[in-house]
Amino acid sequence: MIVAPQKPHTAMANFSPPLFQLAFAKTATGKQAIETKHIPLSLVDRRVLLLVDGVKTGEELAMFCVGKDVSSILQSLLDQELIEIVATAAPPATTSGVPDTAPDTLSALPEPGDLGLPPASQRSAKEMEMARNFMINTVNTVFQPNTRLSLLEAIQGCNTATELRQVYLQWEDTLSTSRIGLKRLPEFKKKLFTVL
């Protein structure tokens, strides 16, 4: 009885890290799923599918799914044959052993959902603070104050506009779970994008 539940957990733990090191591309079915929406996908699954470009690894895709299990999402998309594995990530070539290209890699990634925002580096500290406060306030407005603690902590823990943009999808997904939040989301996004 005790061994049975541990088997899938162990298998998942052993299987997850390779997914982080792999790059994925959309299959023809995956491209069609985006265009026609004939395959029902959750908001997060659809976003990951949109971000898959044949270059980004599972680890890079995870940055756009803060708080979500990207391995499960990728495995689900693989099982549905919407994406396919195309390559393993090359180890970063650095002399210090620390990937000094990490910030450039992050800034080179498309904005969540191709929002068309200016580069994060162009946002001032004041704008970043305004965006962070706006995200926290909207969550506390739509839901009971301080009831979405993991999201609020993730937003509060952001120190740069780049980090804040990585939490954006989780913020949008959370607001989408509320009828009021979903209704006001276009208004919230319009205001947020002026400073995000």
- Please state the average pLDDT score: 75
What Rg, in angstroms, do the CA atoms define?
Answer: 18 Å
Taking the alpha carbons of the first and last residues, their distance comes to 50 Å
Coarse structural class: mainly alpha
CATH architecture term of the largest domain = Orthogonal Bundle
| H/E element sequence | HEHHHHEHHHHH
Largest sheet: 2 strands, antiparallel
Count of discrete alpha- or pi-helical segments spanning 4 or more residues: 10
Number of domains: 2
CATH fold group of the largest domain? Arc Repressor Mutant, subunit A
In total, the number of strands is 2
What characteristic shape results from the CA principal axes? Answer: globular
Strand content: 5-15%
Q: What's the CATH first level of the largest domain?
A: Mainly Alpha
Strands side by side in the biggest sheet: 1-2
Assembly state (oligomeric): single chain
Helix residue percentage: 55-70%
Sequence stretches where pLDDT stays below 50 over 5 or more residues? 1-17, 90-114
Task: Provide structural commentary.
The structure is a single chain. This protein is mainly alpha-helical and 196 residues long. It contains ten helices and two strands; from the N terminus they run H-E-H-H-H-H-E-H-H-H-H-H. It has helices at 3-21, 28-36, 43-51, 58-62, 70-79, 102-108, 125-142, 149-156, 161-176, 179-192; strands spanning 22-26, 83-88. Strands 1-2 form a two-stranded antiparallel ribbon. The radius of gyration is 18 Å and the shape is globular.
SSE layout and pairings?
Blueprint: H1 3-21, E1 22-26, H2 28-36, H3 43-51, H4 58-62, H5 70-79, E2 83-88, H6 102-108, H7 125-142, H8 149-156, H9 161-176, H10 179-192
Antiparallel strand pairs: 1-2
Helix pairs in contact: 1-5, 3-5, 7-9, 7-10, 9-10
